[in-house]
Amino acid sequence: MLTSIKDECAIVGIGQTEISKLSGRSELQLAAESVKAAIDDAGLKPGDIDGMTGFTLDHVDEIEVARNVGIPELRLLSRMPHGGGAPMSLIHQAVMAVASGMCKAVVGYRAMNGRSGARYSSGVAEGPETTDRISWGWYMPYGLLTPACWVAMHTQRYMYQYGASDEGLAEIAVTQRKFAANNPRALYYQRPITVEDYYNSPWIVEPLRLYDCCIETDGGAAFVITSTERAKDLPQAPALIRAVAQGSGFDQEVMTSFYRDDITFLPEYDLVARQCYAQSGLGPDDLDAAIIYDAFTSILLFQLESFGFCKRGEAHEWVKGGTLDIDGRLPCNTNGGQLSEGYVHGLNGLAEGVRLIRGASVNQPSKNLDHVLVTSGASMPTSAAILGKLD
Amino acid sequence: MASSGKGSVYSFVVVHRPPFPGYDYPLVVAIIELEEGTRIISNLIGIEPEKVEMGMPVELSIEKVDDELKLPLFRPVAA
Fold it and tell me: Which of A189, A245, A303, B50 gets the highest tally of CB atoms within 10 A of its CB?
């Protein structure tokens, strides 16, 4: 029996649509385009794909993608819960399926008209009576209606408890827009911002300003995973999956884990980090670059601490002075991230992680990148993966 | 368990955007740590948003927010 998934599987194809405020087409079309692009990029045919994984929040069914792309048979249909927490758990599903021999090649996708269709900033409104919505009945009547509100609650306590200023958040916001300014796919292409712009941007939910928040966009993104053995015969340099993990922490809620003793860290990230390091035999010092999930600037701090790049309560200082810049200790979100490339629920970030391994980012750091960390969203069941080069 | 309705501010946010019908902005939403050791999320009323501080003592105030709804809100404890 397989005892480790380390390096058993690889990402061999990535596909993305353009990112926009108005795609002008259906989410099914965006899904089909990005899945087809990922299969083409992998040098495979639709008939080579036999598994599919996606988001419970996606409006597009696996079977419709399969019909539209021409994938004849599926042996794995799998949807992962909780939006931003899901993206690397798609990798988790695909790796388990391929490494166990249940599938030969698995596609994962996310497609959303997140700007021209339903927007997350439009608040929680009527919907199915799921358990998370019922528990949200304790929060929504008081106007705590958007993701910015929920994340701001953790951020405010963090800043108070650790005496953190907003300077680290400003640096993250400005550095990522600088990356996006070089990236023709990004909504912030050729639109850098200054620290002054950051401080002049309006409050969304104090302590978060406009430039602390991701953008809402339309777009699709997809990836193909197959065995490392097969990847060696395919055209792209494979991004090997050194580790991949999913995790839900103690007293876990979706975005509102406010009853834990200490809300200045997120134990689900600790759990995912422990598993990633145990599987890969790597530690934070081995990670050369990262795609850190960035629905908001402040959630980078929680993740950098859980993954051990610095101690608890120190990330707000650690990120200052160019740490996350192209020539810094940990080049981060080199596509501009979801703050400024676009918001495709982390799968556009995964595509950038693969490009970093391939050496193909528009903001490729000059140093060698052996290992790239890619994470998923904060304050919900989450996931992460470590990508590496073929030796 | 009965609560005294007294507690302190554990964390809070000031909501500005986007505005939703039925609320007055800027809107203070706080996690209140009750004396009994549990927490409740609610609005702080009777205080300017810029005057809210971590740890400040607050107390329950049942408020009628529309014709049909009463909510358990919190006010600063009078000095």
Answer: A303
